[in-house]
């Protein structure tokens, strides 16, 4: 599946955190065409920001609050976003590359044309998210929660989904064959149309309490 990648200007103005975003929020303005490099802004509140055509490289934003923020054409590369809050946000044409997202919260957020690659998002909370045209690639979502999320045109490529919670999630068309799903929680009625390897299918049947006689 191909998705639309972020479209950024050839050159971006160097931005500073957290002052620039806080000033923009105060003035009711969007943050556009900025490059933030090696910025340290942990536990700051950037609630209801509008961030477009920006790059965040090797920034430490652990514990920051971006709840209700709109992200369009944004790149996060090698950033620490652990325990950050993105609840009720929207991500369009956004990529997370090599980012730490341990315990990050995305509840009730929307994703459209989004890529997670080589990320660690274990214990992340994606409850009630609308996830569309999104690729989860070679990333760790150990014990992540996707309860009541919706998946549409979403690809899972070589991800570690050990212990992840997919209860009350329609999984039609989702291909889990290249991913690790040991200990993941699935609702039997919502497995219809999902794709698993023979070995994974046997494991799922056993988890339902079915005894397989060899």
Task: Report on this structure.
This protein has 214 residues and is mainly beta. The protein contains two helices and eleven strands. Strands 1, 2, 3, 4, 5, 6, 7, 8 and 9 form a nine-stranded parallel β-sheet that branches. A two-stranded parallel sheet has the order 10-11. The chain is elongated and about 65 Å long. The relative contact order is 0.10. The model has no long low-confidence stretch (mean pLDDT 94).
Helix-strand layout with pairing:
Blueprint: E1 13-14, H1 19-27, E2 31-32, E3 34-37, E4 50-57, E5 70-77, E6 90-97, E7 110-117, E8 130-137, E9 150-157, E10 165-166, E11 185-186, H2 198-207
Parallel strand pairs: 1-3, 2-4, 3-4, 4-5, 5-6, 6-7, 7-8, 8-9, 10-11
Short description:
By secondary structure, the protein is mainly beta.
Q: Could you report the average pLDDT, rounded to the nearest whole number?
A: 94
What oligomeric state best describes the polypeptide chains here?
A: single chain
Q: Which bin fits the share of residues in helices?
A: under 10%
Structural class: mainly beta
Overall radius of gyration: 18 Å
Mind describing the biggest β-sheet? 9 strands, parallel
Strand content: 25-35%
Estimate the global geometry from the Cα principal axes: elongated
SS elements, strand count: 11
Q: How many angstroms separate the termini?
A: 38 Å
| SSE ordering | EHEEEEEEEEEEH
Low-confidence stretches: none
Query: How many distinct helices?
Result: 2
């Amino acid at each position: 599946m191909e998705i639309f990648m972020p479209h950024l200007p050839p050159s971006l103005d160097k931005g500073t955190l957290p002052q620039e975003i806080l000033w923009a929020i105060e003035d009711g303005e969007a943050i556009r065409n900025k490059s933030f490099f090696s910025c340290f802004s942990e536990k700051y509140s950037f609630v209801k920001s509008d961030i477009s055509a920006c790059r965040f490289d090797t920034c430490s934003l652990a514990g920051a609050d971006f709840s209700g923020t709109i992200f369009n054409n944004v790149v996060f590369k090698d950033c620490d976003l652990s325990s950050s809050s993105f609840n009720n946000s929207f991500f369009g044409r956004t990529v997370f590359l090599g980012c730490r997202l341990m315990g990050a919260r995305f509840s009730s957020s929307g994703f459209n044309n989004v890529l997670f690659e080589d990320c660690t998002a274990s214990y992340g909370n994606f409850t009630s998210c609308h996830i569309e045209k999104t690729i989860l690639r070679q990333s760790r979502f150990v014990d992540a929660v996707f309860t009541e999320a919706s998946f549409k045109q979403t690809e899972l490529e070589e991800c570690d989904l050990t212990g992840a919670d997919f209860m009350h999630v329609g999984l039609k068309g989702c291909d889990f064959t290249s991913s690790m799903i040991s200990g993941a929680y699935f609702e039997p009625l919502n497995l219809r149309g999902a794709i698993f390897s023979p070995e994974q299918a046997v494991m799922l049947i056993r988890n339902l309490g079915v005894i397989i006689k060899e």
